[in-house]
Structures are given as structure tokens and as C-alpha cells.
Specification:
Number of helices of chain B: 12
Radius of gyration of chain C: 21 Å
Number of strands of chain C: 2
Distance between the termini of chain B: 50 Å
Distance between the termini of chain C: 44 Å
Largest sheet of chain B: 2 strands, antiparallel
Order of helices and strands of chain B: HHHHEEEHHHHEHHHH
Oligomer: heterotrimer
Strand order of the largest sheet of chain B: 1-4
Radius of gyration of chain B: 18 Å
Strand order of the largest sheet of chain C: 1-2
Chains: A alpha/beta, B mainly alpha, C mainly alpha
């Protein structure tokens, strides 16, 4: 049984078909990358899986259970956590409180071992991404790169079985990119059964960490395979012509 | 009885369509929920009375209409520039500010004209027999002019360059700015048009249906506009037209059939609004309100 | 020019105030209010102060919903007036004393809040604002409707509701009522404060800031909104019931838009999203209304409309200057830890303190 199974998923917006009959799956312990030029439907796919949008047709199964039509907060509590392409911090809350919100969810509070407190768990989460120094800083005062890390800490606080990262490398400088790559690898090692899906349009950032790559273009899956294969795939290169790789 | 309902509904529907389209215009183009929309309705009526045949300037009805409308449009532009433009990105602030200004207008009118009803002369005199019922000409004129204006607006939005700019802005504000559209000026113009339409509607309703104006008469038109726009579906001008007639008829039915209906008729738009929002938020023709992102 | 002067006063006031932890400030205010009457105040002033206390409860209830959870309600008069009418109805039809009618009225109103909250909170900002605005107006029209005058007494409403301490002398009643309302205010403030500054409060602010992110973090946003709505309705109706018995009446104006708008004025005057805000705002409002505008400036009766106008104008100016000046969210214990202002120092210092105290919220 696949961890996540997406079958014939379709989503239309008026005349535009954003996601067209997409099929893919993610297994436990896999890191899957989803790439494609802007407008390929990657983020829409995320919205569909995380419950923020309802598909027009198709199936989605998580751990064998149907998740079509399930509201976003329930999907999060079932074990799918996601980040957003444009960061969405809770501006008026301090950094640590941002994480505590996730810990207050049913899943979040269940996952706190009896000996720890909310605060301890939140601090642990911040330690994982290196944000403890900014713990009490209101999120609105925190810089972009740190906010990206905060998003991830917040998602990880749910101890998800499937972690979905939407363009986590967006807007990061090479140093930050390197740090994030290592963080993702470490997160993966800490929880080997967890599946990770990363949407990006910079293939080079993903090449080192993913097991498998799926390529989307105009809502359709046009290729799938190991990163080295995809990098040499003629169709993929065509589609990316003129766009930075 | 039934003829009264038919005619009432027709007139009310036509005039309210004009009112509602003004509301949806400023919302669609600038994203502003103008809770002071009803205030322009009220101000139009008062100004018409002041400028008109029995007022200070003793102008002809048509001239008074035009002058009052211009007056309202100017007030609306100033209102936009001073109170809305600075906070246009903050939806909550817009709500609070517009309702505040609505209250301010109400208080100013109370100070200047006093409480109680202010007589508004009929638009024209005489009546014509329609469906065997003697109907005041003011009403017929109101309905006809309202529909003419509604159609003109439709043409304006679909055929002119400014109309295109409005449509662009209503789809995506940032893209519109990138395309070189001066959004601030566009919004101010939209506000002026929106208020003008509301003012005209106010003049017609006050001069042909109720015969009076009151400082508190901004709430009902606001609820009316909102109910119509929601019923017809946001973003749909056709929906606004249909919604207007549905609610117009609902009101005329209540006014004519329910005992002491006149007093309670103002509750109708509020009730409709609540019911629609609770049962079917996207209305009849609206695009789906996708609640996320 | 007047604007700049006013804003300078206001900003110096808030700057000074924000240096003191909000809880401390609130306690100071309360202590002051407790000893206030000892100098000897006449009935009239005590009556106004009692109403100010009630207004503070009302505004605090609104602030929890709007300032903390971000759900804009322009119809809080529904709970205020609704509570008043229910307690009046219970008294008139069953002759029950206030200490039975008020709890029942509050309970009924809260249940009603839950009922209407469920469908209403599904809609977004402007729609919610208009729906909430609509409810009290609808109820107000029904209550004032001529054919129902036997049940609701039309435009006049209910008169002759029992006072709280009929067994005391008239002079002492005013004093007793003042302390009663102060006690209610204190209890309400403590409860609302505890809610706002708890982990639940953190979730509420997350809903205010970003509902989508909150949902993605596993929060059942609708349930929290409903809870905030019901609690807000509870305290608003408590205020309404108390006001009804203070003034001995319940009438349609208590369901009007003006009353729906008053918590907006009060909260913006005092500071949105804070605990001391509504309290301060209520007192400022009454001082402005009864003292400054009536006695000092002597607005003649024909110009009574100017008062609401001035207040509303102040709100507009405040918003334009400080849109949604939601006070930074700080819990008391966070403030306790906030010794080091310097950002470089902060990290290790806070870490040390955390390790010592082991708790942050």
C-alpha cells in the first residue's frame, strides 16, 4: 500500500484545467520531487492533497484511506503537513507561539510525550531548525529565510507521516539553500518511514535529496524517474527552455 | 391588489438594480465593501429636495436630479480619497471606517435637517393607467430612467477603455497596476459612479415611492444592495438585475399583503440577506466563493 | 491641527502605557476604581460609573471576538439588547427575581449565539459584518412591531424592571450598584483575560492572523470561532441584562445599530486587542460623553446628534492613523522574560532563563 496515492486527479478553474488527470504515488521513506515550470499545477496539486481545494474528479488515498472532500484541518490531523509557497506565519505571535499553535491541534497535542510540556516540545521543534534565538521575537519582525524555517518547524510539530514542502528553497541564498538541504536530509534520517514531497522549480536544489522526480507541465504529468534521468529527458528540457534550471 | 404588487415590484426592482450595481461595482473593482453606500442613497434624496422645485434653488426636477447627483459624486470622491484610500488594503478597517462615516453622515443630516421625515416632492406629476391601476408618473419615469442608466452602465463597462480598466482591476489589482492603470484614480472614479447611482436611486425612491427622506434611511438600502448582490451572485451584473427584481417583488408583496406591512417591510432585505448567506452563499449566478487562498 | 494635537496626546499615552505589563496596568485601574467612591460621590456620578463598568464588559466581549479572533461583528447589540429583553420578559411573565432571570437570559442568549454562529461564521469578513449587523435590526423591528405590542410593548419597551438592591436606601443603592458592576467587571475581565492569554488565546490569534495556516496546522478553525462567538455573546448579554436592571428598562434602542457600534468606539478609544483597552475606553467614553461634551463644552440639546458624530469621527481618525493597531500579543510571562532589549543578547539570556523556569506560557 502506498503512503499517498493520487489517481486521475483533475481540477478545473472555469475554462482553465490546472490539474489534468494526474497520477502518482509516494511510499514510506521516499523523498519525491515535483518539478515543472510556473503554472504547471504544482501548488494546485498541493492544495488538492491538503484539502484546501476539492478536485473535480479523481481519487486520493492516504494510508489507504480516502481523503477527497476531507477538510484541511482534518487532513493535517491525519498526518499530512504542508508548508506554503509564500510563507504564512502568524504575524502577531512570537516565533515560539507559531509552533505552539500546531501543537494545540489534536494531533499535535497527542504527540507530546507525557513528560514534556507544550513549551518544551515547541523549543525542541525550533532547535531542529535552528531558530531558538528568535524564540520570543514576533513573527512579523523575522526575516524571510527564518520564516521559511519557521514554516517547516510548524509543519514538523505535527509529526506528520507525509511532509509536503511547497518551494522551500524559494528566495534563499546559496548558504541558506545548503543549510536547508542538510536540514531536510537530517529530518529524513530522523524519521525514516516519513514520506516527503517537495515542489520546486529549481531542479538542481532537489537533485541531491530526492529519490524520484515527477515533472508536471500545464497540469499533466509528462515524466517520472530518477533525478539523473529527468535531467537528461528531452521533453523536460524542452519544457524548461528559457527557464532557469 | 395583484396589479399593485406587479407594478410596485417592477418599479422597485428597476431602481434597486441601479442601487445594487453601484455597490457591486465598487466591490468588484476596488474590493471595497462600502457600508456607507446607503448614505449616498440618502444624501441624494435630501439634496434633490433641497435643490428641487420646493427647495432652495427651485430648479426643475431633472436639473435638481443632475445637480444632486453631481454633489453626491463629489462628496463620495472626497470620502474615498480621505478615508478609504489610506486603508484600502485592510478589509476590517474599511468596514469599520465606512460604517463610521455612514453614521457621521447620518448625524450631520440630523444636525442640519433635524430628526423626523423630510418631505421630498414627487418627480413629476400626474398619473397613467397601467394594468387598470392609476400609477403616478414619477414611478414610471423612475423605472424607465433607471433601466436606461443600468443599460448605459453595462455598455460603458463592456465597450469603453475605462470600462476595460475596471474589468481588469476587478480580476487582479496587481496586474492592473503593472499594466499601467492608475488604480487610485480608477477607484475614485468608480466610487463616484457608484455613489452617483446610489444617489439617483435614492432620489427616485424618495420622490416617487415613499415621498419622504429620513436621516436613518441608509441602512435599508445598504442591506438591500447587499442582499441583491449576494442573491444574484457576486461579480454578475446579470445576476444583480435578476436579484433586484426578485427582492423588489418580495418587498412589494410584503408591503401589500402583510398587515402593517409598511413598518416591517424594511426587514425584508435583511432577512433575505441572512437567509442567502446561510443557505447558499454563492447566490444564483455567482462564481463559487472558494474560501481558501 | 487639532488632529495632530490629539494624536500626540494619544501616542504619548500609549507609549507610556505599553511599558507597563498590561496585567499590572489593569490591576492599577481596578484598585483605583475600588477606592474611587471613598471621597464621596453623588448618586448621579455613581450611576454613570456603574454604566461605564457595564459598558466595559460589553466592549471587552466584543474585543475578544474582533480584536483577538478577527471575526468582525457589527451587531453585538443583538446579545446586549437580547439579554435585556429576555430578562425583562422573564420578570414580567413569571415574576422571577433578577438573580434568576439574568443567568437564564445569559444562558438563552449564549445558546442562541451558538445557533446563529454556526452558519454565520462560515462566511468571510464583509459578509459576516453585514450578517451580524442585520440580526439585531431584524429582531429590533420585530420587537417594535405594532401587532406584537402586547408581548414586547412596542417602541416603549419594558419599564419598571426591579433594581438590584431594593432593600437599601436610595443613596446607598447607587453605591452598591457601582460595586456590583465593578465586581462583575472584575470577574469578566479575569475570565476573558485567562482565555485570551492561554494556549487557546494563541490559537485565536492564529485564526486572526491567518486562517489558512491555522487550518494547515490542524486547528478546527470553525470550532474555535464558534467558541469565541459564544463567549463573546455570553458576556455581551451579561452586560445587557445588568444595564437593563440598572436603568430599569429594556427598549428597542438597545437593539439598534448605535448600540452595536458603541463597543467599536469604546474599543478603539482604549486599544483594540488588549485587556485594559475596553475598560479604559468605556471610562473615556463616558467622561467624554457626560462630562466634556455635556458640562464643559455645553452642547445645547439641539446639537445632541453632534456627540455621536464626534465619537465616530474620533474612531475614523484613530483607524486612519493606526489601522488595526492590534497590540502586540504578549502574555505576562513572556513579558517577565523580556529583560534584555538588545537582540544579540537575547538568545543566550532567554535560553538561560527558560532553562531555569522551564515554562514560557
Amino acid at each position: 500500500m502506498h503512503l499517498l496515492e493520487v489517481e486521475n486527479l483533475t481540477k478545473r478553474f472555469g475554462g482553465l484545467t490546472a490539474v489534468n488527470n494526474v497520477n502518482f504515488h509516494v511510499d514510506e521513506g521516499e523523498i519525491v520531487g515535483i518539478i515543472g515550470p510556473n503554472g504547471a499545477g504544482k501548488t494546485t496539486l498541493f492544495h488538492l492533497i491538503s484539502g484546501f481545494l476539492k478536485p473535480d474528479s479523481g481519487n486520493m488515498k492516504f494510508k489507504g484511506e480516502n481523503i477527497v472532500g476531507v477538510p484541511p484541518h482534518e487532513i493535517a490531523n491525519k498526518g499530512i503537513a504542508r508548508t506554503f509557497q509564500v510563507v504564512r506565519p502568524f504575524r502577531h505571535l512570537p516565533v515560539i507561539a507559531n509552533v505552539m499553535v500546531a501543537l494545540k491541534s489534536p494531533r499535535g497535542s497527542k504527540k507530546i510525550e507525557w513528560i514534556k510540556t507544550f513549551e518544551r516540545k515547541a523549543v525542541d521543534m525550533l532547535e531542529n531548525v535552528g531558530l531558538t534565538e528568535l524564540m520570543l521575537e514576533p513573527a512579523e519582525n523575522v526575516g524571510h529565510g527564518d520564516l521559511k524555517r519557521l514554516e517547516m518547524a510548524r509543519a514538523l510539530a505535527l509529526e506528520p507521516d507525509l511532509l509536503m514542502l511547497d518551494e522551500p528553497f524559494g528566495g534563499l541564498n546559496p548558504l541558506e539553500t545548503d543549510f536547508l538541504t542538510k536540514s531536510i536530509q537530517r529530518i529524513h534520517l530522523d524519521h525514516p518511514t516519513r514520506g516527503i514531497v517537495i515542489v520546486e522549480h529549481k531542479l538542481y536544489a532537489l537533485m541531491k535529496i530526492v529519490n524520484r522526480v515527477i515533472v508536471l507541465h500545464q497540469g499533466e504529468k509528462i515524466a517520472e524517474g530518477k533525478p539523473e534521468e529527468i535531467a537528461k529527458n528531452k521533453k523536460v528540457i524542452e519544457v524548461y527552455m528559457g527557464k532557469a534550471m | 391588489m395583484i396589479e399593485a404588487i406587479i407594478i410596485d415590484g417592477l418599479v422597485t426592482g428597476a431602481v434597486f438594480a441601479l442601487l445594487a450595481v453601484g455597490f457591486t461595482l465598487i466591490y468588484g473593482v476596488a474590493g471595497v465593501t462600502n457600508l456607507a453606500h446607503g448614505s449616498f442613497f440618502m444624501l441624494g434624496a435630501y439634496m434633490f429636495s433641497v435643490f428641487g422645485p420646493h427647495g432652495f434653488l427651485k430648479l426643475e426636477a431633472i436639473q435638481a436630479l443632475i445637480l444632486a447627483t453631481i454633489f453626491v459624486a463629489i462628496i463620495a470622491s472626497i470620502f474615498y480619497r480621505l478615508s478609504i484610500n489610506p486603508i484600502i488594503d485592510d478589509a476590517v478597517a474599511v468596514l469599520v471606517v465606512t460604517v463610521s462615516v455612514a453614521i457621521i453622515f447620518q448625524q450631520i443630516v440630523l444636525l442640519v435637517f433635524g430628526p423626523g421625515f423630510f418631505v421630498v416632492p414627487p418627480f413629476t406629476s400626474g398619473s397613467t393607467a397601467i394594468l387598470g391601476l392609476m400609477t403616478p408618473n414619477s414611478r414610471l419615469v423612475s423605472a424607465v430612467i433607471s433601466m436606461a442608466l443600468f443599460i448605459s452602465l453595462w455598455i460603458f463597462i463592456s465597450r469603453t477603455k475605462i470600462g476595460a480598466a475596471m474589468r481588469a482591476a476587478s480580476q487582479d489589482r496587481e496586474v492592473a497596476m503593472l499594466m499601467g492603470i492608475n488604480t487610485e484614480r480608477l477607484y475614485m472614479l468608480t466610487m463616484a459612479i457608484s455613489a452617483a447611482l446610489a444617489g439617483i436611486a435614492g432620489i427616485f425612491i424618495a420622490s416617487s415611492t415613499t415621498g419622504v427622506a429620513a436621516a436613518s434611511m441608509w441602512l435599508s438600502p445598504l442591506a438591500m444592495s447587499f442582499a441583491i448582490v449576494i442573491l444574484g451572485g457576486l461579480g454578475s451584473i446579470k445576476g444583480t438585475l435578476i436579484g433586484a427584481f426578485i427582492i423588489g417583488y418580495a418587498e412589494s408583496a410584503v408591503a401589500n399583503l402583510v398587515p402593517e406591512g409598511g413598518a416591517i417591510v424594511s426587514v425584508v432585505p435583511f432577512l433575505v440577506m441572512v437567509l442567502i448567506l446561510v443557505i447558499r452563499p454563492k447566490g444564483l449566478f455567482g462564481k463559487r466563493i472558494e474560501m481558501e487562498e | 491641527m487639532v488632529t495632530t494635537y490629539l494624536t500626540r496626546i494619544y501616542s504619548s499615552f500609549t507609549a507610556h502605557v505599553f511599558d507597563i505589563p498590561p496585567r499590572m496596568l489593569a490591576l492599577l485601574l481596578f484598585s483605583f476604581l475600588v477606592v474611587l467612591p471613598i471621597g464621596g460621590l453623588n448618586q448621579y456620578v455613581l450611576g454613570i460609573l456603574a454604566s461605564a463598568n457595564v459598558l466595559a464588559i460589553f466592549a471587552a466581549s466584543w474585543d475578544l471576538l474582533v480584536g483577538r479572533t478577527g471575526q468582525i461583528s457589527l451587531g453585538h447589540a443583538l446579545f446586549f439588547g437580547g439579554g435585556a429583553y429576555i430578562t425583562a420578559l422573564l420578570f414580567e411573565n413569571y415574576g422571577l427575581p433578577f438573580w434568576i432571570t439574568i443567568p437564564i437570559a445569559v444562558l438563552i442568549t449564549t445558546l442562541f449565539a451558538l445557533l446563529i454562529g454556526f452558519p454565520c461564521l462560515r462566511v468571510k469578513g464583509p459578509y459576516l459584518a453585514l450578517v451580524t449587523m442585520a440580526f439585531p435590526i431584524i429582531i429590533g423591528s420585530i420587537v417594535g412591531w405594532a401587532p406584537l405590542v402586547d408581548i414586547f410593548h412596542g417602541e416603549i419597551g419594558f419599564r419598571g424592571l426591579p433594581r438590584f438592591f431594593p432593600f437599601l436606601k436610595i443613596q446607598d443603592q447607587a453605591l452598591a450598584e457601582y460595586y456590583l458592576t465593578l465586581l462583575l467587571l472584575f470577574i469578566s475581565s479575569v475570565i476573558l483575560y485567562k482565555i485570551a492569554n492561554s494556549k487557546t488565546g494563541i490559537v485565536l490569534v492564529s485564526i486572526l492572523d491567518d486562517e489558512v495556516a491555522s487550518k494547515a496546522s490542524g486547528i478546527n478553525v470553525t470550532r474555535y470561532k464558534l467558541m469565541a462567538f459564544a463567549i463573546s455573546g455570553l458576556f455581551a448579554s451579561l452586560a445587557g441584562c445588568t444595564q437593563a436592571h440598572l436603568l430599569k428598562l429594556a427598549n428597542p434602542p438597545m437593539l439598534s445599530l448605535s448600540w452595536s457600534f458603541i463597543p467599536v468606539i469604546v474599543t478603539f478609544l482604549g486599544g483594540i486587542g488588549t485587556i485594559y483597552g475596553p475598560l479604559l475606553g468605556a471610562y473615556i467614553y463616558y467622561i467624554l460623553d457626560r462630562y466634556v461634551l455635556t458640562i464643559l463644552v455645553k452642547i445645547p440639546p439641539e446639537f445632541v446628534y453632534a456627540k455621536l458624530l464626534i465619537f465616530t469621527a474620533i474612531v475614523v481618525i484613530l483607524i486612519l492613523k493606526w489601522p488595526r493597531g492590534l497590540a502586540r500579543f504578549t502574555t505576562d510571562k513572556l513579558q517577565d522574560l523580556e529583560e534584555a532589549r538588545d537582540i544579540e543578547e537575547r538568545g543566550p539570556k532567554i535560553w538561560k532563563t527558560y532553562k531555569k523556569k522551564k515554562k514560557i506560557v
